[in-house]
């Protein structure tokens, strides 16, 4: 009988998004196929990288080769299932580390992860490839621009958000110049760079995309209708939004969203599962890309698990597909 592949499932992280990582971990642990894979959960935190055994023993990971040792055995991993939102699991740092060690993983590679973690660079590359995006300004803490200068270049309302990271932490919608300074202070608390982006009128869609056995698969996409003024942290994770999966939409619009999602996946050389957020601009009759999440949430409140189920797959089948595609890279 063939030994089961040994998989490290990494969770935690170094940022405020670790809270979301641990919520995702509950869903992943419930649904990953432990008959097919030997799974070890690794908690990556600022104070160390640890595995806790079934008996409650806490073992530190040897970062020289990403292994753990217990019961007189050294365990090395065939692949890594990445479930860390924010740094270092979504910004390319862990991916670069695993690349150096020759261990395959379930997410985009280091270059794509680092690029897409920066919202401004992401929309710049997308625009260069002919994908519609909102007009925006990229601000730096040491070179901040005053409200009047922003108002002279962008039309209100605008969104102000930390340039790096996800989960809509630190994000604000600003309707006039008088609200800008408070929104900038809030965003700069989360990051040294801030993106100020023009509001696009339209319907908000979000779509999961992954590659399986060489084919780019788009999941049935979701329309997000926020009960707050926009799809912020509370709307995403505390139930203050209505999510319709699959979205009720004309097939012509649906095909444009799917086509653009596949184009984004190819342009950014993505791997594993990503989630792309769009506004469908009624004025342009085209989807405008907002951002790419290379480690999308997997909690009970998250969108990708809903879309997987709408496709007719179980989460166990889905996580197995991600792991098998990673193992094929060995």
TrEMBL record:
Obligatory cofactor(s): Mn(2+); Mg(2+)
GO molecular function, one term: ligase activity
Pathway: Cell wall biogenesis; peptidoglycan biosynthesis
EC number: 6.3.2.4
Catalytic activity: 2 D-alanine + ATP = D-alanyl-D-alanine + ADP + phosphate + H(+)
SUPFAM superfamilies, per the entry: Glutathione synthetase ATP-binding domain-like, PreATP-grasp domain
Keyword Nucleotide-binding on entry: yes
A Pfam family this chain is assigned to: Dala_Dala_lig_N
Subcellular localization, as worded in the UniProt entry: Cytoplasm
Main location: cytoplasm
Keywords: ATP-binding, Cell shape, Cell wall biogenesis/degradation, Cytoplasm, Ligase, Nucleotide-binding, Peptidoglycan synthesis
Top-level class of the enzyme under EC nomenclature: ligase
Organism domain of life: Bacteria
ATP-grasp domain boundaries: 123-324
NCBIfam families membership: D_ala_D_alaTIGR, PRK01372.1, PRK01966.1-3
Annotated function: Cell wall formation.
Protein family per UniProt: Belongs to the D-alanine--D-alanine ligase family.
Name of the protein in question: D-alanine--D-alanine ligase
Species classification: Bacteria, Pseudomonadati, Bacteroidota, Chitinophagia, Chitinophagales
